[in-house]
Predict the 3D structure of the following.
Amino acid sequence: MDNQEDRKRLEQSTRIVDALYRVVNFISYVGDLRRLLELVMDESKKVVNAEASSLMLYDPEAEELYFEVALGEKGDAVKKIRLKLGEGIAGISAKERRTIVVNDVSKDPRHFKYADEVTEYKTRNLIATPMLRGERLIGVLEVLNKSNDEPFNDDDIKVLEFFAQQAAIAIENARLIQENLKSERLAAIGQAIASLSHYIKNVISGFEGSVSLVDNALAQKNMEIIDEIWPVFKRSFNRLSRLVRKMLTYSHTTTPQYSIASVNQICRDIYEANKQTAEQANVTLSLALDENIPLILLDTDKIHDAILNLVSNAIEATSEVGSTVEIRTALLPDEKIVEINVSDDGPGIPADVQRRVFEPFFSTKGSKGSGLGLAIVKKNIEEHNGTIRLQSEEGKGTTFIIRLPLRIPESQ
Ligand SMILES: Nc1ncnc2c1ncn2[C@@H]1O[C@H](COP(=O)(O)OP(=O)(O)OP(=O)(O)O)[C@@H](O)[C@H]1O
Ligand SMILES: [Mg+2]
């Protein structure tokens, strides 16, 4: 007798330790509510040795229980089932905030048979227990059909109640995380709209100035004024169309249009096209190309655009007489990588700014920058499965480092 008692006690503590181990896993899934619910169902089934389990969440507005996840072939039909409080055993457990055990479902009129009909599942026995946070109802956890035709016992109830309590905490945390992410996203959208409106407002002011001057010129039939205003008008127009094009580029996910191209040639083109602008800004633009780089597959427009954005930023950042901006390429054959560096000896980027430079609409240039430049660079490079990072020291300068996989065309 004693022996049997001991064995029972040992079995019970083993099960509780097992339950504790299983419950600890809930925490790792709080970032993904669906997976968390699946895990709770799966683990509850195992911990009480049942054939199946189900989990209903409580919708406080409709005062109904519903299935957020329902697995198996009939999952979609099950998801349409909603139970009022007090309806079926789960509904009663929810309403009365207590665990209900039924060891012969066929004799219990409270059983909600419809769910069995939908799933074509025959429930013999079950435990339903409410998931509560204090007085607040989160949902109901059920386990169905104890294995080996046994009835559910007191230990099963205790373990499942403990499980339901832990699940309630994890579900609540998962929901809080979802809410936080949502408000963070909304805050980011708000910020983006604010900086975008600021930028557009400036361009529009440019337009307004030219429009009223053109009105006057037309009234006076004075072509000279129109000649003067027209370039200003075109500049504002170009800024606006560049912004819209950048926004389109940023918001569309496209796969690169690969063709055989020379990274060095792209750099040379950018160098030739920007040499003069750099000089006008007191900057010496220089090239240091690794001639060992073979022709590779890439989307020329996207890579051109990326390097050009880095060069423009570097020139904009360094306007001291005698400053330099260098475009450097290197082949890293062991790593099968082509590296493109754009470095300047400008003011550098403070650490708190470094963290944000790739964010869309982040700019320290006020109305002169849309803040989309580096966001597009990152997007273009990542679409090539490449990486971009930066090294910068305040007062010394900045280097942006692009790494592209060496995609050799098949014919080479
Ligand atoms: N070489 C650099 N030196 C110093 N700061 C830089 C450099 N490159 C980028 N930055 C910082 O990163 C910010 C974001 O750059 P990004 O190119 O995304 O936007 P932008 O240049 O401000 O605007 P846009 O490129 O749309 O006209 C810049 O406002 C600037 O503060
Ligand atoms: Mg820029």
Remarks:
- The chain is about 50% helix and 20% strand.
- The chain has three domains: 2-180, 189-251, 259-405.
- The radius of gyration is 33 Å.
